[in-house]
C-alpha cells in the first residue's frame, strides 16, 4: 500500500485501490520531458493534442489519486482523464512526476498540459490556473473497529457517544470535529493515516476521521477495521464538499471546455462513474452534485 505523504497539503478547502484497476493507455509509459512537442497553448489546443497523439499529464505519486505502481500510472485522475481524452481523440497519456507544490508552477512553465492529481479546487489556485468542473467530492467518514462497537455514523453520533476521535496533523478534519461540538480533549492528532488505523485497532481512539476515499483505501490493509458510510460535514452551516478536478494552463479554456463536456457525461452516469473509479475507493458518494460549480468555488 502506498503511504499518503501529501494528505495534509492537498488543499481540500485550503489544505488539500485495489491492486486491480489497471489503467491501460497506449504508449502510457513513454518518457516525457520539457522539450516534448505540443504545449497546446491558446486557441486550438485540442487540435494540437490530437495531431501529436498524446497529452502530457502531471501526477504527484499520491494514492489513490494519481500514482505509479511499477511502471504503470494508476489512480482516480489518470483513469478518468484517460477515458475523457480518448473520447476527445487523444489516446495516450504521457506522465510526468512532480512534487505536489510544483504541479501548478510546472503547468505554467509548459512542462505538461494537464495536472492529473485530484487537486482540490480553491480560490487561491484558481488565480494561477483554470480548473475543470469538479470530478469528485470528498465526503468524510470514520474508521472504527470491526463491528463498529460504538455504533458511530457521523460526527453528531461521535459527540453524543463521547468518543475520542483521531485526525491528521494539519488536516481540515480537526475543524470539522470542533465544528460538530466535539470537545478538544477528545480530539487526538496523528501524523499519518496508518497511525490512525493503528490507534483505532489499539483502542487509543474510537474513530479516525478522514475522507471516505482515503479510509476505504487504508482499510484494505487493516482488516480489523471498517469504514462508516461517508457523510458531508458542515462548518457554520455550510456543507464541506472538498471537490477536486483537472487543472489546465490559463489560455487553454477551449481544452478545458472540451474536457468538461466529456466529464459531464461520466459524472451524470452513476454506474459508469462507479465502474470506472471504484477500484480506487471512489463510489456514488463521491459523485459531485450538479449544482456544485467551479466558478462558485473559485470565488472562495
TrEMBL record:
Chain's gene name: ehuB
| Solute-binding protein family 3/N-terminal domain segment(s) | 54-284
**Mind telling me which SUPFAM superfamilies this protein's record contains?**
Periplasmic binding protein-like II
Q: Which UniProt keywords apply?
A: Signal
User: Which GO biological-process labels does this protein carry?
Assistant: ectoine transmembrane transport
Question: One Pfam family this chain carries?
Answer: SBP_bac_3
InterPro entries to which the protein is assigned, alphabetical: Ectoine_EhuB (IPR014337), Solute-binding_3/MltF_N (IPR001638), TAT_signal (IPR006311), TAT_signal_bac_arc (IPR019546)
Instruction: Tell me the GO molecular function terms.
Output: ectoine binding
Q: Under which name does UniProt file this protein?
A: Ectoine/hydroxyectoine ABC transporter substrate-binding protein EhuB
